[in-house]
Amino acid sequence: MDAKTTNFTISADNSSYPPSISGIQNGILAYAINQMDWFSNGSKAQLYAIGKATQLEFKVSYNENKPAGGHTQHVWDSGVVVKAPTLDSEGIIRYTCTQCSATKEETINKLTELISYRTHVQDIGWQEYVSDGEMSGTSGQSKKLEGINIHLSSDLEGSVEYQTHVQDIGWQGWVSNGQMAGTTGQSKRLEAIRIKLNGKVADQYDIYYRVHCQDFGWLDWAKNGEPSGSEGYSKRLEAIEIRLVSKGQAAPGSTDRPFVTEAMVSYRTHVQDIGWQEYVSDGEMSGTSGQSKRLEAINIRLSSSINGGIQYRTQIQDIGWQDWKENDQMSGTAGQSKRLEAIQINLTGHAAEKYDIYYRVHCQDFGWLGWAKNGEASGSEGYAKRLEAIEIRLVLKGHAAPGNTDNCFYKR
Fold it and tell me: Where are the domains of the chain?
């Protein structure tokens, strides 16, 4: 091989044996040689041996990958992974000579695990780490998850980040690479989780995860930072499964319902020529668009999971501002064909401490007005203009408004 011979023979030391015996022996030897990998100057060679009675014949084809530039040996760099290993298949790493740019490839062993994780469980504490889709937590014991650590395999380039929605706290900040998300020693349940990959691993894999949620059971698989669990229901997470899937490959199961959220604020309107519409929630439009139909009345209610109440009053054609109504009572009129012209909405109790309430209306001739907040008037007064639609939403106290807050009310 070093002499760059492409065809050569080697005499067999059993040539004195009867050809019927030596031929079989040499054929077995040639077969064994053909099963091996052969290299010349760092490049793989194709070698084919034929066993005969008195000799072995070899045929070789290979790239003449000899060092250039006068050096006698290749100096290989640290290599680049051109195919990442998985649990099911080997990977490939390619090395390049720093002296002459020659390359060679080697295999990377299959991974033993891609991702591992453990949970802190009510009355149990930290469980042992599990990996690659195994369940962490408990089943049938009604025990809440309180904290979680997640690690990537050291063979993967990149990081894993995750955040949890915690009882009485809400969404915590993102943590990464084995740090704890959640709490310990506070008896606070995890209610939801988001997990995502960063770096090269994010180009190679999607991360899927699903949770077992109190009263809902196993939810469907979430992926790449989507929320998994519930919000607004005060339901504990009881178990979790996490796995990496090669980029673009099929999910481990259904992805239809990974997250359950309860409407924070719901409302309906009584519309000219239509009557009462169905309830909508959390910023959806109630009323009509492009039909020139007046709103005549409204009901508004908070989620039962929110501690507090909601009150509201409306400015009505020929009547003016009505008294305050609350908690799904009707504000406005029915059967009198009187338009709503403006509205004010307030939160009460603990809800007012935790949230701001924003609302905006579509007003005749003005269109969509800016967002009003926490009891401000929205609509018009003195213009005899009908309200045609409304959107209402809750925002955590002090957080940004849903949109522009200019010109939420016109008065003359």
Answer: 7-61, 68-110, 115-260, 265-411
Distance from C-alpha of 120 to C-alpha of 298, rounded to nearest angstrom: 46
Q: How far from 88 is each of 203, 395, 400, CA to CA, in Å?
A: 18, 46, 47
Upper half-sphere CA count for residue 119 (Cβ side, 13 Å)? 25
Write the DSSP symbol of residue 76.
Answer: B
Give the pTM: 0.50
Q: Tens place of pLDDT for every residue, the chain, 412 residues?
A: 444 557 778 887 877 778 777 778 777 887 888 787 776 665 667 777 787 778 878 777 665 555 555 566 888 998 988 887 776 788 899 999 888 888 999 988 877 789 999 999 999 999 999 999 999 999 999 999 999 999 999 888 999 999 999 999 999 999 999 999 999 899 999 999 999 999 999 999 999 999 999 988 999 999 999 999 998 778 999 999 999 999 989 999 999 889 988 778 999 999 999 999 999 988 999 999 999 999 999 999 998 878 899 999 999 999 999 999 999 999 999 899 999 999 999 999 999 998 999 999 999 999 999 999 999 999 999 999 999 999 999 988 888 899 999 999 999 9
d(CA 364, CA 383): 10
CA distance 200 to 164: 24
- Residues 306, 354: Cα–Cα separation, whole Å: 10
With CA atoms as reference, report the closest residue to 339 among 304, 384, 276.
384
Alpha-carbon span 370 to 114, nearest angstrom: 49
Residue 344 is given by DSSP the state E
Question: How many angstroms separate the first and last alpha carbons of the chain?
Answer: 99
Instruction: Identify the CA nearest to 134 among candidates 155, 117, 111, 154.
Output: 117
Q: What are residue 259's DSSP bridge partners?
A: 229
B/e letters for 368-407, b = 16+ CB within 10 Å, e = fewer, are bbbbbbeebbbbbbebebbbbbbbbbbbeeeeeeeeeeee
Are 222 and 229 in contact by the 8 Å Cβ rule? The answer is: no
Residue recorded with tokens 């062993």: 109
Q: What distance in Å separates the CA atoms of residue 77 and residue 97, rounded to the nearest whole number? A: 6
Sign of CA dihedral 121, 135, 203, 108: positive
CA distance 248 to 240: 22
